[in-house]
Each structure stands twice: as C-alpha cells, then as structure tokens.
Amino acid sequence: MRRNSAMPQAASTAVLTPEHILHRLDWKVIRRLDGLLQGDYRTLFYGAGVDFTDLREYQPQDDIRHIDWNVTARMNSPYVRQFAEDREITAWFLLDLSPSMGFGPKERPKETVMTDFVATLARLLTRNGNRVGAILYNNRIDKTIPPRGGRIQVLRLIRELLHGSAKPTGMTTDLNELLGAALNTLKRRSLIFLMSDFFSAPGWERPLSLLNRRHELIAVRLFDPMEIELPDAGLIVVEDAETGQQIYVDTSDIKFRHRFQEAANRREITLQENLKRAGVDLYTISTEEDLVKAIIQMVALRKRRRT
Question: Are residues 202 and 179 in the same domain?
C-alpha cells in the first residue's frame, strides 16, 4: 500500500485568516521558543557564510564540502575554505503540496503542520531582517514567491498555503521537478528548508545532492503514524490520495498489517539511504507532535552534528 488514506479530509480552513494563524503562532509557539532558546536561533539558521576569507589545513571536524581540491592537490595535504558568516539570510521554503500531504487527523493533517512550521520559521527569520521566499509544488510547480522581508511576506506565505490551487489527481509526485526548479531559480547561496513526506518517484537524490553543495539545506519530513503502522480497525475503505483509487482492506488481518509495516520499513530505509548519498540530514515531524518540541529537537540535533 502506498499513501492511502482512510481518514476524512482536513477541515476547511476558509474560516481561518492568515492573521488569525500568525497571531496564534506568535502566542503559542514563538513565545515559547523564545523562552526555551532565549532568542538563540543561530544553531538552526546559521551555517557556513557566503563570503570566502581564507584557507587553512583540514581538521577532522571540518565539513568535507569545504575542501578546496585544487589547493589540496598542489599542497599534497587537504585544505578547506573558510567563510565569513553572513548574518543576513535569504531563506527559501521548497514545499511539497501534493495530495498525500492531506493525510492525517481531520484537525491536523500534514499540510496544516507544514503551514504552522513555515509560518513560524518565516516569522523568526523576517523579524531579524532576513528575507524568505518559497517554491510551491503540487505535482507541478504551482508558484514561486520571491524572497522578501517583513510581516506581510509571512502572511502571504500563509495565505498561499491555505488557498493554493486544487490538488490534481492521477499524477505521481516527482520531487525531481521541485528540486530542479530550485537549482534553476536559486543563484545566491541560501538557507533552504525542503518540506515533504518524500512519497515520490525515485531519482531525486541527485538534484538534492547538487542543491546541498550550493546551499545550506535542511530536509524536513512530515508524516502521520498511520502511514507506518495501521490500527486494527476492521474492514475499511482506503483511497490513494493522488490517484483517487479506492479499495477495501481488512485491517483486522494481522498478516496484512505486518506486510503494511514491512513496506513502510523498506520505504524508510530507502529514504535514509538516499539522503545519506546526498549528504543531507533529515528531521522528522509527526502530525501528533508538538511543534515547539519538534523545533527544539531540531536545534539540538543540528548543534550535536556540528560539534
């Protein structure tokens, strides 16, 4: 089984305005983050800067992506490029809005978690003078939002996520298209958040690797626990979110549930291998997880991986 949903679609967000959502996040998420992190978001946002300053000999903790291979060949010893930190960031959100993102609890499917995450990070970035933009993918490139700063830009991102185009059916998600658009669009080194459930046609790890060489890239996988382990709920109708095909399955059949979990485990192993080949770390957020907790864990993991 693949990306099937037996759950109701998300409740309509038409009654919610971007202003309401941002106000809620300011009070319930961002204030809590400020208190827990004491305003120190550098571990999450700041990676290598963009301005080259010097060369020095390679040390074991250095990022191998910064090795200068020409100098290394001449000196017969590895050398790395050093960069001055650029405090003004241009951040891009690469957002997979394909139909499978509608899976999850009625009140909080994956696409709702994505909206809250994007709005929170965009708010944190823009209030410090940085610019944010986005490329929206809905089984085709739906829209490119040029990077700008300020609260109005955050509200625009929320609005686009709430009222995007209708989700197409009968098409297969292919992250190659989203990543290819980013490679063609993003010329200046940027901070990139790739957000997806990574249910995609294969082969996207190569453009991801190319993008990671040029930019500071953070991959965020959104998932719902029912995509990994089915409950014993008897006979149910499931629908493939992207093709619209419906079938009956007997979730009381322990062998069926076991096969379902095995398929999910194989998918997870493949995803981890692809990201490892691309040199990209993966962070996961569940539809059942508190967003503040998820971001705090992300900060802790990035700090640990850099030390």
Answer: yes
Amino acid 48: pLDDT = 45
Q: Are residues 144 and 230 in the same domain?
A: yes
- Residue 165 structure tokens: 């185009």
Residue 157 dihedral angles phi and psi, to the nearest 5°: -60, -45
What would the pLDDT profile of 149-179 be if each residue is shown by its tens digit? 999 999 999 999 998 766 666 678 899 999 9
d(CA 81, CA 20): 45
- Both 169 and 275 in one domain: the answer is yes
Interior/surface letters 95-130, b for 16+ CB within 10 angstroms, e for the rest: bbbbbbbbbbbeebbbbbbbbbbbbbbbbbbbeeeb
Shared domain for 26 and 76, answered yes or no, is no
CATH of the domain at 231: 3.40.50.410
Residue 57: which domain range? 51-83
Residues 125 and 172 in one domain: yes
Report the C-alpha gap between 224 and 287 in whole angstroms: 5
Contact 19, 155 (CB under 8 A): yes
79/69 Cα distance (integer angstroms):
8
Are residue 67 and residue 97 in the same domain, yes or no? no
| 17/157 same-domain check | yes
Contact 168, 138 (CB under 8 A): yes
pTM attached to this predicted model: 0.80
Q: Is 78 buried (19+), middle (13-18) or exposed (0-12) by CB count in 10 A?
A: middle
- Rounded-to-integer distance, Cα 99 and Cα 105, Å: 15
Same domain, 182 and 66: no
Q: Which residue's structure tokens are 């900060």?
A: 299
Cα-flanking dihedrals φ and ψ of residue 156, to 5°? -65, -40
Domain total of the chain: 2
CA distances from 92 to 29, 158, 162, 185, 213 (A): 21, 14, 18, 11, 15
